[in-house]
Structures are given as structure tokens and as C-alpha cells.
Design a protein that fits this description.
Layout: H1 18-21, H2 33-41, E1 47-48, H3 61-79, H4 89-101, E2 111-114, H5 116-128, E3 134-139, H6 143-150, E4 155-162, E5 165-166, H7 171-177, E6 183-185, H8 199-212, E7 216-219, H9 235-238, E8 243-248, E9 260-263, H10 266-280, H11 285-296, H12 299-325, E10 331-332, E11 340-344, H13 351-360, E12 363-364, E13 366-367, E14 380-384, H14 390-409
Parallel strand pairs: 1-12, 3-4, 6-7, 7-8
Antiparallel strand pairs: 2-9, 4-5, 8-9, 10-11, 11-14, 13-14
The structure holds pyridoxal-5'-phosphate.
């Protein structure tokens, strides 16, 4: 019988047990603990150093509005249509030009536009990781990468990260015994540690990886956010045949547009394109065209300059406040760019207990253990310095200092 629009919902005695239907792979999926902490930070009066959020008051909202209107008026039909998986060609050309200025050797055909770098991480997992395959990451490393890769059920070997980035010297011993699918590295202003891989270590990394025939994934969302010191040659520039380079508009423009890109040898781009096609056909045509308009009008360059200035000021305010309010046993990194700094407390302090205390003082951070593949590092925490305004940074660090002092003197 055909429905005429009025019908009774079907009721039966049988209930579907969805938990039994989820496939085995689902057990490797989890929601990010940071998202859980962020729920708390939405509450009034809470000062949050937890998220990886850019400063919203700097978003070029008016420029986006102008770009939207311009794209719709001049190429509205194209902007609302399906488009190639590889990405909008004029944006790829503009990106190739930008990348070349940044000394990354690439042509438009080496670029794939993605739905943020996060999608690139998933696609990389999809094409390279089979169940039980070994991969190498830093220890700690970006939580979202762990989440993306873990879906494909790899065995993760973590290489320690110190103040000069990943301890590349430790790689050789691992590679003598293991044949990982890739080495995942954060070269600039590491998330969560804020540290930068030195030039010498980049060279050593490239040499070691090439000796053992292991590709490198260079994830670089923060490279253009250097507010002090000198840029260091990207890893891909040292050996473009063996490196996949990832970057994103999230931190230099706005994360809500969900637009990132991969630079890789064409053979890899082709496989990533197939994987992306199966996932979402292509990244939003409209968003790519708007972003191209913004890049073409020089807004990105000016905007990046402004955020470097503001984030540099905020980093200084945060470290100055820490000097003033944190007990002397507590140590922290002093990043020359990016969004995050890393705090190490005496071994006996558990950052999760500290977070409980901190929430009572209405200040939040992310306990560092979530960034370790083996969930060690319980005496560490990550602080974001880009999102809160200066007065809130000062007040938040003062509150955190109080909590730390209580903990260390109790
Ligand atoms: C190291 C790293 N890679 C990738 C991403 C994901 O960025 P996107 O917003 O482009 O997906 C982030 C976001 O914080 C990050 O810190």
C-alpha cells in the first residue's frame, strides 16, 4: 500500500542492538577528550587554555563577506556546482606559488585540497595503514593524528620529543628492527609541545628515513606563525620524493572553512584522490573559490602578519605571568611561534587531578598524557596562548599558579 503522507510508525517487540552491529574497527574510535574538556570551557567565567582555537576577534569576517558576494556575482553557477576531487585549479596554482616562496618545491599537480588537514591525516591512514602495520609518531604528538590513524589499527611506536623536536637519533635503532609504513613528524611549533625540529635533525631525519626507505609525513599547520627567530627549511625541501607535506588554512585564516592541502609526489596524490573521492567526492567548491579570492587579494598575507604579532604578544604575556605565579619546580617551553606551550611538573603531580582542582578555580587546560601514544606523561599539560585575551591570560595563569602552589605544598 502506498503512503499518502499519513502513516503510523512501525512498532515491533524487537529492538536493534546497535552496539552488536558496529564493526570491530569501531572499538578503535573514541571521541577526543579535548572536545569533552571544551564542553566545560563553554561555561560562563571559565578561562580556557584547553582548545587549539585561534583568536576569533581577528577572523577577517568582512573580507569573507566581500569574497562571498564577489564569487556569487561573478561565478555563482560554478561555485555551486560539483568540481574535481583534486581541488579548484586556480587555488592550487596560487598555493603552488605560495609553497615555492616558502621553499617547498611543488607544482599544482602535486597538490590535493582536503577538508582540513584532519582529512588528509585520515586519507593517509586509509591508503597506507593496514591492521597491525607499524607507524612512527612523536611522543607526544598531535592527538587528532592519533585518532585518525588508530581507526586503521596500527601499532604505534613513539619517539621522544625534546626541546629540539623529535629525537631523530633514536630512530635508527627502531628502523634496524622495524619496517614502519611512515614517520609522522611535526616540524614547527609542535602540537602539543610548541618546540621546533632543528635544521640538523631535519637533515638527519631525511637521511635516516631515506636509508631505510621509509616515507615522512610532515604536518605543518603552524610554520607561517613564527613570531620570533628564523624560519627553518621544511623537511620536504630536503627530499621531496620521500615526503608528504600537509598544511591548512585553519590557523592562518579560519578553521571553520575546513580547508587544508597535501603536497606529495603525483603517484601518491593519485591514490589520495581515489580515497577522497570515495569519502566526499571533493572539498566544497564554494569555499575553495572564496578562499582563492581572499588569497588573490592579498588578505591572507596581511592577516597572517597580524596574527603573528598578536600571538607573539600573548605568548610573552603568558610566560611572564608564569614566571610570576608558577612554583619554581614547574618548567615550560617558550615557543617562537604557533599556538601552544608545554608545562612539565614534578613527577608526583598528576595533571588529571590538577585539572579537577583547576576546574573549581574555573580555569582549564589539557592534561599532557592524551598526546602520548602510550598515555604516559601524566605530569605534563598543554596550554594554548592564542585564544584568550591578555587580561584573561594573566588572570587564568594566576588561578593556575594558585592551584599548582597548593598542590606542591600539600
Ligand atoms: C598538528 C596538527 N595537524 C592537523 C590539524 C588539523 O587541522 P585542520 O583544522 O586543518 O583539520 C591540527 C589542528 O589543530 C594540528 O594541530
Amino acid at each position: 500500500m502506498e503512503s499518502n503522507g499519513k502513516f503510523e510508525p512501525v512498532t515491533t517487540d524487537v529492538t536493534t542492538h546497535w552496539e552488536d552491529i558496529f564493526c570491530e574497527r569501531c572499538s578503535a574510535m573514541s571521541s577526543s577528550i579535548i572536545r569533552e574538556i571544551l564542553k566545560f570551557t563553554q561555561m560562563p567565567d571559565v578561562i580556557s587554555f584547553a582548545g587549539g582555537l585561534p583568536a576569533p576577534e581577528l577572523f577577517p569576517v568582512r573580507e569573507f563577506e566581500e569574497a562571498c558576494v564577489h564569487v556569487l556575482r561573478t561565478a555563482g553557477q560554478q561555485a555551486l556546482q560539483y568540481s574535481p576531487t583534486e581541488g579548484f585549479m586556480p587555488l592550487k596554482e596560487a598555493l603552488a606559488e605560495r609553497m615555492q616562496k616558502y621553499h617547498v618545491p611543488c607544482e599544482p599537480q602535486n597538490i590535493l585540497l582536503t577538508n582540513g588537514s584532519q582529512q588528509a591525516l585520515d586519507l593517509i591512514g586509509r591508503i597506507f595503514i593496514g591492521k597491525g602495520d607499524t607507524i612512527i609518531t612523536g611522543k607526544p604528538t598531535y592527538l587528532g593524528a592519533l585518532q585518525a590513524f588508530k581507526v586503521y589499527e596500527p601499532r604505534i611506536i613513539g619517539i621522544p620529543v625534546d626541546n629540539e623536536g623529535m629525537q631523530v637519533e633514536a630512530l635508527e635503532d627502531v628502523l634496524k628492527k622495524e619496517k614502519p609504513k611512515f614517520i609522522y613528524v611535526l616540524p614547527n611549533f609542535h602540537n602539543p609541545k610548541g618546540v621546533t625540529l632543528t635544521f640538523q635533525r631535519r637533515v638527519n631525519l631525511v637521511k635516516t628515513a631515506a636509508t631505510y626507505g621509509i616515507p615522512i609525513i610532515e604536518d605543518d599547520p603552524y610554520g607561517e606563525l613564527r613570531f620570533e627567530g628564523e624560519d627553518i627549511t621544511p623537511i620536504i625541501t630536503l627530499h621531496k620524493e620521500n615526503v608528504l607535506y600537509l598544511s591548512t588554512f585553519s590557523k592562518i585564516l579560519a578553521p571553520g572553512i575546513r580547508l587544508g592541502w597535501v603536497v606529495a609526489p603525483q603517484k601518491i596524490i593519485k591514490k589520495l584522490v581515489q580515497a577522497k573521492q570515495a569519502t566526499d567526492l571533493h572539498t566544497s567548491t564554494f569555499i575553495q573559490m572564496i578562499t582563492h579570492d581572499i588569497v588573490k587579494r592579498g588578505i591572507l598575507k596581511a592577516h597572517a602578519k597580524e596574527i603573528r604579532k598578536v600571538y607573539g604578544e600573548r605568548r610573552h604575556i603568558m610566560t611572564d605571568s608564569m614566571e610570576e605565579h608558577f612554583p619554581k619546580e614547574v618548567k615550560w617551553t617558550k615557543p617562537e611561534g604557533g599556538l601552544f606551550m608545554w608545562v612539565e611538573m614534578p613527577q608526583e603531580v598528576d595533571a588529571w587531578d590538577l585539572l579537577d582542582e583547576a576546574t573549581k578555580e574555573k580555569v582549564a587546560f589539557v592534561p599532557g598524557s592524551v598526546f602520548f601514544p602510550d598515555e604516559t606523561g601524566r605530569n605534563t599539560m598543554r596550554l594554548n596562548f592564542s585564544n584568550a585575551r591578555p587580561d584573561l591570560i594573566r588572570e587564568g595563569i594566576k588561578r593556575l599558579g594558585r592551584v599548582l602552589t597548593r598542590k606542591l605544598t600539600s
